[in-house]
Structures
1.
Amino acid sequence: MSITRLKPIVLILALVLGLAGLVLYLSSYFIGLLLMLAAVIIVFAYRAASGEKEAAAEDARRLLRNLSVPAAGVAVAVLVGGILMLATGYDPVAAYRALFYGGFVKNWHISILNASPLIFTGLAVAFAFKASLFNIGAEGQYYVGAMVATYLGIFLKLPPLFSIILIFLVSGLLSALYNFIPALLKVRTGAHEVITTMMFAHIARYVSSIFIRGMGGDSAGPHPYVSDPILESNWLPRFQSILPRANYRLHAGILIAIAMAIFVHYILTRTKFGFEIRAVGQNPQAARMQGISVGKNIFRALLFAGFLAGLAGTNQVLGLEHKLFENLQAGYGWNGISVALLASNHPIGVIFASLLWGALDAGGQYMARTTQTPNAIVEIIKGIILFLVVARYLYVALRNRIKRRRRTAGEAA
Amino acid sequence: MDAFFSIFNENLLIATIRLATPITLAAIGATICERAGIVNIAMEGLMIIGAFFAATVSLLTGNPWLGLLAGVVAGGLFSLIHAVGCISFHLDHVVSGAVVNILAFGVARYLMVLFYGHPGTTDPIPRSLAEFQLAIPGLSRIPVIGRALFQQTPIVYISFVLVICFAILMKKTRLGLHIRAAGEHPLALETIGVSVFKMRYLAVVISGITSGFAGAFLSIENNVSFTEGMTGGRGFIALAANISGGWTPIGSFLAALFFGFADALQVRFQIIKLLPIPPELFIIFPYAATIVAVAGLVRRSRPPKEVGVDFIIEREEE
Amino acid sequence: MNKGQNRAVLLETRNISKQFPKVLANKDISIKLYENEILSLLGENGAGKSTLMNILYGLYKPTAGTILLDGQEVQFPSPKDAIRLGLGMVHQHFMLVETLTVAENIILGTEPGRLGFIDLKQARQEVVELSERYHLAIDPDAKIESLSVGLQQRVEILKALYRKARILILDEPTSVLTPQEVDQLFEVIRKLRDTDVSIIIITHKLEEVKAISDRVYILRRGEMVGERETEAVTQQELANLMVGRDVVLTVRKQAKTISAECILKLEEMVIQNDQGLDAVAGISLGVCPGEVVGIAGVDGNGQTELAEGIMGLRELSRGRIVFKNRDIHSLTTKERILEKISNVPADRHRFGLVLPMKVSENLVIGTHDIPPFIKGINLNLPVIAEHSRNLVASFDIRTPSIEVQAGHLSGGNQQKLILAREFSRDPDFLLVSQPTRGLDVGAIEYIHSQILKMRDRNVAILLISLELEEIFALSDRILVIYEGKIVKELIPEKTNEKEVGLYMTGGGTKEP
């Protein structure tokens, strides 16, 4: 029996193991980690056995190479951050220990909670980047999604599963439409989407203030600057309801986010929509020559990006906060951009970059509480990581120089 | 009718000029930058850095002029990150600009917590540049525009001077010619022996300096302290002003006036309370105006040919 | 024109080598330039001629070897130094800033004036004096973008002369000129030679070498493989030296009978360009299955808009376009592709390929959403891979795999990729623009033979080209386009390049 006939079984097994492992791990059952590892090993073993050994090895090699860049960035940023801390009178060792412990161990659930909205906004920015569009106003789309989710969350009374799915879809749709004018202007007049989406983002922020006031958050009321709470039937399910050891705030949003990332990856690599969007992003003139409509694909890219960013807001409202806070400094937009850049706009990479960012935030808060090192050092570390990762040319140039030096040294010898 | 004139009067003009100033300053910096071929979306972050350092040094020394200097120098230095990123590291200009913005916000926050112990707003400065308002004798008596143009505060005057200087620079000097060539046909410039890299670095630093002025205006002339996020999108509005102004200093100035007008109007509508509308809908004026401007409903013109395009010479040393 | 060896050597290179990361562009090149002579550097694309010139001009540093000027060893760390020592270069792609005026471009880098300000009046005056001295008439206040290509080249020459060049290097100077403009250029060069300016011409055109130069060096694969007095050498010998083997100089097409019913008919077609002017000002033509119709003309006479109109990328203002007896003006580009209209665009990097995409992806783009390449909304990757492997094999596309980026292929292989994609669609009509631009003789041979194979398969072919040699080699009929109209129809066997060139520049019409 040829091994390729086992392929569907292997895939399903890996999927089930991986998913189960993920959920368990998130709920603080660390055996989940082993299950996920097993899933990965099964996939690689299958590829090796079925004669794809070369391609599998090449993939593994490529993965390691791609990871080395962010790893180097993190290393240097940690170093520079440490020097900065020393220079301003804080203890870097204690600070980093607290940072790591807080982000990855003690408050791992907070890291996850931080990461879910970032995955959505990161995907939004990354997807638009594939079409060479800079959806810098993702934060505005976030607010639109959050507002719609809050409104429906307060008023929509349906059985929980229907309700939640409906809210996700409607809020995503409306935040997608929020990008309609920027897309239209881009296609019709060439107006730069950096400016238009950014302006719309500012507008959305102010509109959200009006909205919150209207939804019970006016300054004279019982809870100023916060909307009324949403119905409990519209809350995203919590892990604790099935797995008691999980942290009480951990909700299913992270699973939706990861599923969305896989979905986006699938669209980009396997469907004709992704193909056309990539072609338009990489060479719109050649794409036009082949009958691909540049305008239509710009619309698709920006609107779908709006959809994704809006889901970030929905995720926060339905899953974590259950109401809408007036938070003018949320930073989901810029953090989403960072995450997308960090992941080189790869949807799966966005998941890990978001987790890293989420962990840094969670660890930073823990560090600030326990060692009195200002949380803001984390912002600088993030900025340095970002800068170094994005400066890919540096690595290419460095690598070429090392290669050349070795070659000329070899020739001289 | 009374209500109409309570809004549309001389004070509106004064406020327009005043509120246009940070946008003017950032926009003419963007003009020079883009003429040389570099897209700079980092002006928002550079303004924040300028604003922070201006306020902090004013506070520390009690002298707002030193604060101004500090803000300008800080803006110029910080802009080098963008310059290095897109010129030497060949990053995509928009990506590099976004990274600089992120870095700027982070640095501002860190330093705030470091110096003041808390994020948010700094302590008020003892003397603001607004105290140094100067009325030019004679000229300031001209009806309607006299006070708006000739009875203003220092940085506003500086912005006028810079607009004129930049206009002369671009049209009539060697440097201006080289900057224009760097954005249209950098290889031509390089083959004549003028370094495109140097031109572009210079252009970016110039935009950093003007953004520093703009930030300083926001914190120590139009206000008495620094608040996080006080730039409110002006860095991006300035980009729109440059585009609407056709990539010229005078054009950028006129476009900035348009946005300043929207800003001034919005404040007045809030105060006068003409209609029972939430104030936020007025605050949105400038942003909506920017979208309208950028959609080409104001003016259409061509950007420099090689703006945003990376320039690599396949030169020498291995 | 004295040829005695007692002439002074103006410029000499000794054993110049240049190593790039992946390729040895120049190996041990030693050449001499005498006073008062016109020297040619002949070689295929990639032979190393431009590299050598860029070294002489200070853009590159040689990895080995020396340069001597007037017998003294010199170095050119930057173009400024080369200019200072009297070298001037006219590049193939002009180094002119389009939005600036002629005067501003000429003085760029050496502007007259004080304290950083430019004295524009003096600049104008100097330019006028210069153009009078060398009889190169030009309007100093004209913006470059408003000048013809021939005039722009004149500005480039004036730029070099303004800086007192004694050696003028021209890189592929005739590639953008009409035959008449070429004659004018040669006149100017001869005059310059007589006024103490020596000229080096870099070219891959054999007739040019014979027409204008006194001596020629032949480069091949980075090495200098021959030096000849041009009077004493034949074109065939030059071609063989250039390529290293015996070369078929023209691909012979078989005469054949052409079916009478035209598959594509353009009737009084009018198309506007981006500025709102009529770029195509009323063209009527027909192309029949099995014939190659060649459109000859100088760049900018409406060819681009014509091609865009046929492919549906630009609307017709008036007139009809009829394909297989159907008016197709309302069909989108996509629909025209489905109607079996294929297109090889003029600029392979800008319009022909998505360079960051894989070879396999570039081979199916355009038909990627048609079965069998698609299954529902999913791309059928195995089928696409199989299809790509077949095309790579049958079109001899040299690539390590179908998964590499198209940008990593050489120019010739990229063009083969485009041909493979368009030809494999089994078209009934083929629009081919500039198919061999920038390619070497070997690649040109291959592509011409592929086009003729399509002709043999009874495909109707419309060829738009700026290379008269190509037009003559492939066409059954030649239509000359000038200012958006077809001004003349000629049969290649009954005419010559001079006559075609005449019509290309508006001559030969019966207007008063």
2.
Amino acid sequence: MTDFAITPARSQSRTTKIGLRWLLYVILGLFALYYLLPLFVMVTTSLKSLEEIRTGDLVALPRQVTFDAWATAWSSACTGIQCEGVKPFFLNSVLIAVPAVAISTLLGAMNGYVVAHWRFRGANMIFALMLFGCFIPFQVVLLPMARMLGIMGIAGTIPGLIFVHVIYGLGFTTLFFRNYYVTVPAELTKAAKVDGAGFFRVFWSIFLPLSLPIIVVSVIWQFTQIWNDFLFGVSFSQAGTQPITVALNNIVNSTTGVKEYNVDMAAAIIAALPTLLVYVVAGKYFIRGLTAGSVKG
Amino acid sequence: MAPILDIKNLYKNYGSVEILKDINVSIDPGDFLVLVGPSGCGKSTLLNCIAGLEPISGGELHIGGQNMTDVSPKDRDIAMVFQSYALYPTMSVAKNITFGMKVRGVDPATQEMKLQQVAQQLQIEQLLKRRPGQLSGGQRQRVAMGRALVRDPKLFLFDEPLSNLDAKLRVEMRTEIKELHQRLGASMVYVTHDQIEAMTLATKIVVMKGGVIQQIGSPAEIYNRPANLFVADFMGNPAMNLIPAKALANGEGSRIEIERRDGAPIVLTDTKNRNLPEDVIIGVRPEDIAEPGHRAGQVAQEAECMVDIVEPAGADTFVVMQMGGKHVTARLHAETSAEAGKTQRLAFDLGKVSYFAPDTGQRLN
């Protein structure tokens, strides 16, 4: 490198540089505090007794840590007339989210593979329509979907909710996989065809093994969407099939007598834990997958 | 002997755009056919049509005497090497090579045997466990060749397999491919835009432009007797000199006059070619203009020429002159006495010149 290659137009003094750097840290720190404060209040409140909440300070640490509120939230808090905690609803959410995520990801991968590598007349049009599906607001599909589920005989059931989430997620998952697969050279498909591989063989043997980063993106996205969904959950479920988001709402809204803030907070944290867990486990792949542009081969 | 590949009146359209027009090519077993032309001339499309990766819009295609027009790629008994090598990125080299056999259900023992055979042949035994991403360009190239070789097909197809390599490696691999062809005696179709690759590898060259075959012939035919101005200009480096000239019939043959910037025209007498039209374009290879006494052919005609530029290139020295309003390059020997700005006596080998009609571009002699 030559000496004159990089010469700043006006060099800042060392103290100004350090000062600016510290200012940056302070501002970032303040933002971090601002965002973390609600979580802090939630966690501390859930660990306090009702007595302490009533008398103490909102942001103070608990004087005596107790997990009673967590136990209540999990197994005996009242959601309307029944008092079984969030446990059965948590299970419902798992039963809805896991198959829905798996099915929508797999179908999205196949769709993306077809749209990107098995071009047919109207492929672009179909892809555009699927993209359009990503932008349809939830509220618009509520009534037609209710009618659909009724006709199919799966209204109010868990398979019904899985169906709704798969349909609604397909636009996104197709988009993810299509954009990932267009970076795979077309010659790879051609080579496999000459080698004698057919449609599914090429998909299983060549495309799926390449797809880990984008599968992670799709799983995180879909899991977060489906787990956190409230509108579909409240519209298309009935007693016994409600997801945890609906249960959380019921716990918070159906208290009689004293409002049990600690139980509400504990239930909210329980409801949020799985998505947090997914991010912690797969987060680094998420960023990598979003930025993955090229497949070297 | 029945041709191994026979293409009859092949057409290829994308919508209303004609990509390939009335292609007729046939090659015998053991031939090395090179499709050459500038980018966008349809040579790669033609190769894809032969492979069955692109459906054809009209005509017929026979491989090994069987009509393969509507047969899918896997049943055509072909193997193909791609420009980007197209190695399966998640599979090891060994898996890449055996993938085709695995798909066709060849038993594992045979797979292993063939794999070892090919690996030995290409000297890639030590690479078998690696992934394509861990290989250099030249190694990937070998693996791609291995994947084709292991198939032992009727016909090998190569789609610009050397264009991603650096210049030195390209020349090495070129020699290796030629050696491989000689050793196997296999039939090959090879696409390139590099006319030197075409000349060095082919037993038969197809020059294409705009989806139309310009000329089919052996490398020598293409080089010495180009069918039209396009082929003359495309094949050869430096390109053939194409000089506008006047041809006048006289007793001995044709009197060729080439205009010069200053002074009288160069006058050459061609005793071989009569009945030329008055306006012609005369095509002379740079090596057919030499100093008297060097390399001059039997029908050499000498003339004084003003040298504009001298370009030493090691083995040869190129001198550039002005004739008929065009730059004309001559390939002289390395120790030439030619100097820029001075006149030099040069011999034109009229035994090897080509004449073209200026309006149609077609060859006249």
